[in-house]
Amino acid sequence: MIRFIDVHRDQFGVEAICCVLSATDCGFLTSRGYRAAKQRPSSARALRDEVLIGEIRRIHAENYGVYRYRKMHQAMRRAGWDIGRDQTARLMKVVCLEGVRRGREALTTTPSGVPDRRPDLVERDFTALGPNHLWVADITYVRMPTGFCYTAFITEVCTRRLVGWAVAASLHTEALPLQALEHALLSTRAEASSSGLVHHSDRGSQYVSLAYSDALITAGVKASVGTVGDSYDCQSLSTRFRKDWGVPADAV
């Protein structure tokens, strides 16, 4: 309650706050009692809390603000601090520190209900003799405060370069992977010299749709799809490239 009055005293005044709050809310605290409490020296617990709060702030910032109280408690213990889990939660609440809560996983690959006879021309051999011989397409997501943001990208295997990408709030074919394909064709000018170019993807409905298939045929690009039920074909390649690019493995 003392801290609450400290925060709002300049706006409302101590007398007004103590009069408005009920006896249960303020614990029978009067303006005179508030001033007496402010004059008392800090207790040993309060002084230790200030030290612990400083360390909690530091560890929280060093870990990009993702630690909640359980991981923060473990980190504090590893750093040599004698602190309980409930105490960690209390101090984090005092300074309004929150971590990242795990939510539901985004669905990026929706199996197609239409039979697909296109072959697997890659068979998990992600190598290429030269540029624009093999493209690999995949979809990932970024968690946002209001939901998910989806990203479709196409990787040129020989140079390990992203040649096409698109971002959208949904997984509709017209809005996401098709735009990434158009971007790749435009950025590499592969449409005019695409002899032997293979486009590999999983069997998700976005990639086996009529619109996407027509775009590949028009560009003269050979379509290749991964093994049924194995969505890790393209994902394993993108994970491997992330290591080469220096991107953290847990970045999505």
UniProtKB/TrEMBL annotation:
One Pfam family, short name: rve
Stored InterPro entries: HTH-like_dom, Integrase_cat-core, RNaseH-like_sf, RNaseH_sf, Transpos_IS3, Transposase_IS3/IS150/IS904
A GO BP entry: DNA integration
Organism: Brevibacterium jeotgali
Molecular functions per Gene Ontology: nucleic acid binding
UniProt protein name: Transposase InsO and inactivated derivatives
Integrase catalytic domain residues: 127-233
Function noted in UniProt: Involved in the transposition of the insertion sequence.
